Amino acid sequence: MPEPLEVLFVCTANICRSPAMELIARDLAGDADVVFASIGTHARDGHRMNAEMSDLLPAGTADDFRSRPLSAAVLQQADLVLTAEAAHRQHILDDFPQLHRKVFTLGQFEATIADIPDLSGRELVAAAGQRRTPSAPAHDVADPYRRGKAAAQHATGTIRAMLSVIVPRLTGRATSEGTS
Fold first, then answer.
1. E strands of 64-163, at which residues?
2. Sheet of strand 80-83: strand arrangement
3. pLDDT in tens, 42-81
4. Cα–chain-centroid distance for residue 174?
């Protein structure tokens, strides 16, 4: 049996956007054989998810979440790395340029896979790495930290919309089977 596809989400502190990406993706994927995790480029180990963001997720979803800092080992293990913004992608590629075929912004990956029909899972990730769409500001998820409830709602909505396209393609399911 093949190993599950491992998808890693990255933001700055791993308390707002990347944990929301991880938890929403898990929900959308249901019981699919895909592992979702998240880290932060400047995270401190063990912090809880930001309350304004976790309040927008199903009750109890974020209770056990704890932040993790970026590490070479975690990046190497991932099959696909999706960042909240281009700055996170560049931060990773500055130190790990060899990972360029598997590191995208969330919106960049969504745009890239739109041009790759009929592939899913590892085949989709490999094809995306060969012909990525250039990153654009519209591909970024704005940082909601300390910007209020409206900013958290906007970020969560953007994440959910992008992942509603991405997760079914990664899992090979025509429609997501999550609970939200």
1. 80-83, 103-105
2. 34-40, 5-11, 80-83, 103-105
3. 989 889 899 999 999 888 888 899 999 999 999 999 999 9
4. 19
User: For the structural domain made of 5-171, what CATH number should be given?
Assistant: 3.40.50.2300
Is the pTM of the predicted complex or chain greater than 0.70?
Answer: yes
Do residues 106 and 166 lie in contact, with contact meaning Cβ atoms separated by under 8 Å?
A: yes
- The pLDDT-based confidence of 89 (bands split at 50, 70, 90) is very high
Q: b/e map of 4-19 (b: 16 or more CB within 10 Å)? A: ebebbbbbbbbbbbbb
> What does residue 88 show for φ and ψ, rounded to 5 degrees?
-70, -40
Domain residue ranges of the chain, discontinuous segments joined by + = 5-171
Rg of the chain taking only CA atoms, in angstroms: 15
| Residue matched to tokens 């393609």 | 169
- What tokens were used for 149? 């409830």
